[in-house]
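Re: Re: token formats

Sure, here are both.
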Amino acid sequence: MLPKVSNEYTSIGCNRFPQVAAWGKDGTVAFVAHNYVALYYPEDLECRGIISTLAGHKDRVNCVDFIYRGDELNQKNIAIISGSADKTARVWKLTKDNKWVNSAILESHGGSVNTLGVTRAKSIIVDKDLIITGSADGVIKVWERSICDDVQDSVKCLQTINLERKYPMALALSYLPESKIPILACGGTDKRILLYVQKDGLFIPSLKLQGHENWIRSLSFATNTESNSTTTSSASDSTIQEQYKLKDGDLLLASASQDKYVRLWRVSYNGEVSGSLDSEDITNRKSKEQKSLKELLENLSDDT
């Protein structure tokens, strides 16, 4: 009788970079290993280890992330994006035959792609995905991805942002509170966080956040929900002024730096509040704040 041979477990080493792993909504973990993107399920009852490796990059892979779509808790990861020292980023997706394919290649950078930004928001209902790539050439590129068929996507470069001798180390993408207006955060070697807001299809500089004392290596957006707001308010000191309390829909940005600190930044409507407010007052104030925000965006100029 011939002996039976079976693969019980597969492993591979992870590259040593800050943005080398991502955890998808379905439990899949993607991480970069040499020139590949490796996939595995940590909750696999059979503990098989690596279940697939995505091959295509011609040099070391530096970063990886999942692309999400869906409404609130029904969001799903629909694709994977990876950036490499071969100066490209690649989109990977699962076909109906349950096979991973390289559906698109993003190429026009002059240096290694070191960081990626994909939309993270409470709800992501879109037909086209925004993807941001940051490279060692000191350039940020904004891409639009559209699904063509089961195995192919189309990508188009919408904008190139030159950081002028500064290097992007971290990117994050979301929507401004109570809107579908994209906001982009970039952290890099100048120790500041650059915020861009999209207007007429282009991201324009809006604000610079200072505080970190070394390179910024990681950024992440999250939306504060009503349940979190209630918990925070009940646990906080009652003497805290109303404008400093987290509200439902506030956008939070976490930044991590080589200065050993993580900072939390809040993006919210700037409205003064005095005394108690009833539900009608809150609704009226929210409407005015939304109008004020739209007017601010309309008045933003290219040299802001």
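Second one below.
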Amino acid sequence: QKRYERGVYRYLCLPQVVAVYGTLSDLLSVASNKLGIKATSVYNGKGGLIDDIALIRDDDVLFVCEGEPFIDPQTDGRPHEELTGSHTDWLTLNVGGRYFTTTRSTLVNKEPDSMLAHMFKDKDAWGNKQDHRGAFLIDRSPEYFEPILNYLRHGQLIVNDGINLLGVLEEARFFGIDSLIEHLEIAIKNSQPAEDHSPISRKEFVRFLLATPTKSELRCQGLNFSGADLSRLDLRYINFKMANLSRCNLAHANLCCANLERADLSGSVLDCANLQGVKMLCSNAEGASLKGCNFEDPSGLKANLEGANLKGVDMEGSQMTGINLRVATLKNAKLKNCNLRGATLAGTDLENCDLSGCDLQEANLRGSNVKGAIFEEMLTPLHMSQSVR
């Protein structure tokens, strides 16, 4: 507390920590007892008169007096006229080669703890460099500084078209304009387009394909194609890893060597598709139709469907020589008349599968589950060496 009596200032260095409760009158009564004065007014640290105890925050430092006006302890007793006079003189800033004219109070009053306030609160406190015209040199971007200066002038965030808000945000952080930082973060968030999770249409994807050089790797990882008609398209070597291809029409599509690892193909139609050398590790194709597909690569590159979920798929008549279906789930699948010569079916769940008419010569069925599977009219009978359960 600082009190003014008989033309001199008298300091009372009596800091006290008190519990704030009840009404403002209760607080004044407690303060009077603690400080030995007749407290009549309460101010916050910036000189704001408090007339409602609800305005007091937990970390506020309060000043009480016996009725005299608030005097900021930071001023060291200097007359008010001297202080305000030093804060209202005009000055010019040279920011990155562009000149701005403003008052010292504009740079100081709005954000008293900012870098700008510390630079210009006292004349020559920072030894600010000046150019030949006497303007104070600041090596920052002028286009990002202008919105900050206007904010200090009138408290509103106004940014011209074409100005990157991220650049203004970085300047606000550099100069320590804390109250502006929050405004900018909200503005940046609101300016971002809403995430579009809608599926990609055939028209959009074809345009994308035509704009991509044939030798470039096309990455469609994680994209949403749900329900799209991609039939008869050339999709060779495209990366569809973890993409959503559920309920897609991929009939007669060329998916040679495509990466469909962990992709969602549930309910999709891939009838007569070219799947030579395709990678479908751990993919989900439950309920999909793959009738008449070609997985057989003459060059020897094997299709890999290891760990895939193929429950209830219809793969009737598909060419799957040498295919890798290790530990895949084919429960209730239709594999009638499929060519599974040399296929890896170790640990595969073939429960209730229709394998009638299949060619399983040299197929590895070790550890597979064939409970309830149908083997009638099988082209190559199972041998005892092929351990099944």
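Residues 178-191 form the longest helix (14 residues). The first strand starts at residue 2 and ends at 5.
- S.
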